[in-house]
Every structure is written in structure tokens, then in C-alpha cells.
TrEMBL record:
Name under which the protein is recorded: Trace amine-associated receptor 13c-like
GO cellular component term of the entry, any: plasma membrane
Compartment(s) where it occurs, according to its Swiss-Prot or TrEMBL record: Cell membrane
Gene Ontology terms, MF aspect: trace-amine receptor activity
Source species of the chain: Astyanax mexicanus (Blind cave fish)
Amino acid sequence: MNYTEVNQTDQCLQFACPERSVSAVYVLLYVSAAAVVLLTVFGNLLIIISVCHFKQLHTPTNMLILSLAVSDFLVGALVIPMLLIWTIETCWIFNAEFCLCYMLSSYFLTSISIHNVALIAVDRYFALSNPFLYTNKVSVRTLCIVVVCDWCVMFFYNLVAHYFSRNFKSLVMCPGDCYLALDENWSLVDNLVIFVIPCSLIIILYSLVFVLVRKHAVAIRELNVNTKTQTSHKTISMQSERKAAKVLGIVVSVFLACLFPYSIYSSLGKAIEVKVELFQKVLILVYLNSTVNPIIYALFYPWFRKCVKLVLTLQIFKQDCTLIKVM
């Protein structure tokens, strides 16, 4: 992510965070913040438990959903609380070392989330365009290796980008501020690697996915009644793939809707006057996508609702519970 826009001056204005009186609005803000954090953490934790526990959910696509849920869980546990406290207090109340860890974590987890969504788009396109090849070549183990490699690559990329960035080496932390800037060259590279290329891939592939879904729907409607029994299994399989593509398309659409405001804000760079409040609100929108994803799964995935019921009623501790059919 590009934070160059907020690094406006080389001189640090020394100031103390303003004292706040405890009011009803102040308490309500913290209660709302706690609710958002709990919803994000426990919502994604339920997805993680469901996919890991039930063997029927051990599919290649669900490994990508699991990776996305893990990144969203970490965003809810490590990033959102600090950002909401910073926003409510209108001031960074922690030390510079904690700010550095927070910023590096937010860079890394945001890049992982974007790449997870891009991998989901690639997976859905491959599954619909070459279903037989996908079944034969793509396995749970294959996508687990892909996910682990992606996490490792993004981790080292973020370390390298910030270590070699000129602004990172000369970073001066101001009391009450928490910003980490990349220099102009690394900002350009970062925008391409983290935003432009993955988002372009997501948009192009999902456009192709919905074209394929429409073709499949037309083909199914045109099936002859006499061959219906012979092709029923294939029809059910194609319908399942179409439904999965549509639901994941909703996930992707919501993700892009949350991401684009920050992308536009970041691309404008020095052309606009930077306001800390606006910057924080745009960041909140990006990270709230991690809160929305479990809600989408609850609304559109019956298997997720069934898994939540089994988890909350503690039935997952029963013998052979992992073999229960949830789909």
C-alpha cells in the first residue's frame, strides 16, 4: 500500500495527544469499535474452524477461502483495533516501535487479502473453463502449496520494499502520528504489484467467468428432455459451479467496492490536500471488507450456516463429527 501521500513534511511537530473527557458518544464509539472487532474475529474464526474441521469442505476452492479467512482474521485481531483507536482518539497513543509493527502488518495483510481474492478469481475461471483438467490437475495439496508460497512471497516482498525504501531508512516518528512512507520508485512498484495487476486480473477473469456461467445456463436449458437422465449429474455439477461462481463474485464485488476508494485516493497522490481524517476513513473501509466477508458467507452459503450451528452447539466435539455432511 502507498502511504506516501500522508508523509507531508520532513519536520516533526511535537505535540501531545489532546485529552478527551468521557462522554456517552465516546463510550458508544468504543462499544461500536469492539463490536466490529468481535464480529470480524469470530466471523472469520468460524469459517476457519468449519473448513478445517469438516472433511467434506476440504476442497481446492475452500483452501483459498480458508486463506482469505485467515488473513481477514488477522486483520480483525491486529489491524482494525489499532486503526479504530487511532481514529477515535484522533491521535496515535502508542509508541513509534508499535506503530512500525502495526504499519508493516497492515501492508502485509492487505497485500495477502488482495492476492487471495485474485487467486480465487483464477481458480473459478480455471474450474469453469476447463472442468475436467481442473479436476485432474488441481488438488487440495496443490492449492495449499500455492497459498503458502503466496504468503511467503508477500512477506519477503514487503520486507524488501520497506527496507530499500529511502523514506523508510530516514523515517522520523512524530508523537501522535503513525505513518510509514515508501519512496516514489517503490510506491510505483507497490501500486503495480499490490493493486493494479491483481485488481485487473480479478476484473478480467470474473468478467470471463460470468460469460461462461451464462453459456452454461443456456446449454443446460437447451438439453433435450430425453437425455435429461443421462446428463443429470453433469447438470447438477455445472449448477453447483455456477452458484459458487456467483457467490464468490459477490465477495469479489464487495472487495473491489471497499478497495477502490483507497486506490483512487492513493493514485491522486499530491494532487489533493491530504487530510488525516479522510485517510483514516478510507483505510477503515478497506479493512471493513474483512468484517463483511463472513456475513456474505452466512447469507449465501447454507453449508456455512450449518457449520456455525454445529460449532456453536458444540456438536463438533462428538465422535465422527468431521464426517457429517454439511453440503
